[in-house]
Amino acid sequence: MEPSAPRVLLRSLLFSYILSGLLLLAASFALYRFRLKESQVQIAVNLVYLLSCALAGFLMGKGIRKRRFFCGLLAGFSYFLILLAVSFVLNRGLGTDTPRILTTLAFCVGSGIIGGVSS
Fold it and tell me: Predicted confidence band at 111 (pLDDT cuts at 50, 70, 90)?
C-alpha cells in the first residue's frame, strides 16, 4: 500500500516541530545560563530552522520514496508557512522585516530540499 502524502507530511512536520521545541528550549537555557548576545541567539535560531527543516525533508523523502527533491521542498515550505502563520497571529502582523522573512524562507526550503535529497 502506497503511503498517503498528506499523512507523511503531517508526521514529518510533527517530528520537526518537536525537534524545534527541544532545540529552542536548549537555546533558551544557553541564553539564560551564558548570557548570549542577540546575534548569537539569532544564529542558534537559524540553526534550529536548518536542522528541523532538514529532518522534515528527510522524513518526507523516506516516507514517499519518490521525487525526494520535491518532497523536501514541500516539507520545508510547509514548515515555513506554519511558522509564518503563527508569527502573524502572535505579532498581529508581519512587521517590516522582509529580508529576515525571506532569509528564513530560504533556510527552510533549502534545508528541506537537502534533507529530502539525502533520504
Answer: very high
Burial of 76 (0-12, 13-18, 19+ CB in 10 A): buried
pTM of the model: 0.90
Residue 57 CA to residue 72 CA, distance in Å, equals 4
Residues 6+ apart with CB under 8 A from 11: 59, 63
Q: Who contacts 2 (Cβ-Cβ below 8 Å, separation ≥6)?
A: none
Q: How far apart are CA 16 and CA 73, in angstroms?
A: 14
The dihedral sign for the CA sequence 54, 57, 60, 66: negative
| Mean of all residue pLDDT scores within the chain | 91
pLDDT score, position 54: 97
Residue 2 has pLDDT above 80, yes or no: no
Task: Phi first, then psi: give them for residue 53, nearest 5 degrees.
Answer: -70, -35
